[in-house]
Amino acid sequence: MAVATDTEEIASIVTAHGGEAVMTRPTHPSGSDRIHEAMQKLDPEGKAEIVINLQGDFPTIAPESIREVLPPFTDPAVDIVTLASEIHTEEEHLAPSVVKAVGSHIGPRRMRALYFTRATAPYGDGPRYHHIGLYAYRRAALERFVSLPRSPLEVQESLEQLRAIEAGMRIDIVIVDSVPRGVDTPPDLETARSILSKS
After folding, report:
1. What is the CATH number of the domain that holds 65?
2. Reported pTM
3. DSSP label at 71?
4. pLDDT at 185 > cutoff 80
5. Rg for the chain (alpha carbons), in Å?
6. Domain limits at 34?
7. Is the pLDDT assigned to residue 197 strictly greater than 90?
8. Is the pLDDT of residue 124 over 80?
9. What are the DSSP E strand ranges found in 30-128?
């Protein structure tokens, strides 16, 4: 496990606490492009078959949720696996900051992704799902993903996973019980510190 960053201050804090940090270019258009550079530095021989991109603004994600992305890779047709949780509040249904995962159910707690959007979707009665920004890639899928140009829907929605969908890559979604608390503001940080101090 390593932290990929383009900021010396973050790298210094990680290494001061015994972690491994990898400096990457500041020009990457997405987190997945960034982890590709880090992977090339950490594993140039290509030994790792699966690469997980966990964004740093989800420090409260449950370890078991991270492990949930691995079983779908037993299906060789799966390129990428991500997470989502059912939405239960009107605020989440309507907020553009909450990305909705739209998919077809293919098993218990598992969907094949059809689309991701900031709009309230799908229309009508029935569950909606809050996408959680964690991605697990087969190494070959990550290599392909970063070789692709940014796609029209990726640019329009500002969602990197749409690049993969527009290229015909298969993304499976595992449904988990809750969305980890994101850290986007100083009050969010205090809340996350409080949660982590109790765990």
Report:
1. 3.90.550.10
2. 0.90
3. G
4. no
5. 17
6. 1-46
7. no
8. yes
9. 50-54, 80-86, 100-107, 110-117
